[in-house]
Amino acid sequence: MAQTLKGNRPKMTRAEAGRLGGEATSKKYDRSFYQKIGRKGGETTSENHSSDFYQEIGSKGGKATASSHDRSFYREIGRKGGLR
User: Fold this and answer.
1) What is the dihedral of CA 24, 30, 36, 38, to 10 degrees?
2) Contact (CB, 8 A) for 41 and 35
3) Which of 25, 54, 64, 69 is 20 to 30 A (C-alpha) from 9?
4) Cβ–Cβ under 8 Å, residues 11 and 1
5) For residue 6, what pLDDT is reported?
6) How far is CA 55 from CA 12, 27, 61, 62, in A?
7) pLDDT at 1 over 80
8) Average pLDDT in the 57-74 region?
9) pLDDT of residue 8
10) Taking a C-beta distance cutoff of 8 angstroms, is the pair 57, 42 a contact?
11) Kind plus residue range of the DSSP H or E element containing 6
């Protein structure tokens, strides 16, 4: 934060501003707010993309997970899922 604004306050980075904004939003709204906007985002995404889009991102995520985890990881998440 080398630059300063009037009054010798340090200039905020974009990351700092985003973090502060996120914290203020989380104090202002409850869980149902985030559920509502998440649902709206999911609906909009599904309207704008085909099922191929979801297959592609699912495949990418699966490959990334497989490359960074071993068999014990899959055993553990399978066991946890079975308990539910």
Assistant:
1) 60
2) no
3) 25
4) yes
5) 62
6) 40, 36, 10, 10
7) no
8) 95
9) 74
10) no
11) none
Q: Are 61 and 54 in contact (CB under 8 A)?
A: no
**How is residue 8 written in tokens?**
């010798």
- Name the residue among 50, 72, 69 with its Cα closest to residue 61: 69
Q: pTM (2 decimals)?
A: 0.49
Give CA torsion, residues 45, 37, 32, 51, to 10 deg.
0
5's CB contacts (< 8 A; 6+ apart) are 11
Q: What value does the mean pLDDT take over residues 41-60?
A: 93
Buried b (16+ CB within 10 A) or exposed e, 32-45: eeeeeeeeeeeeee
Sequence-distant (≥ 6) Cβ neighbours of residue 44 within 8 angstroms: none
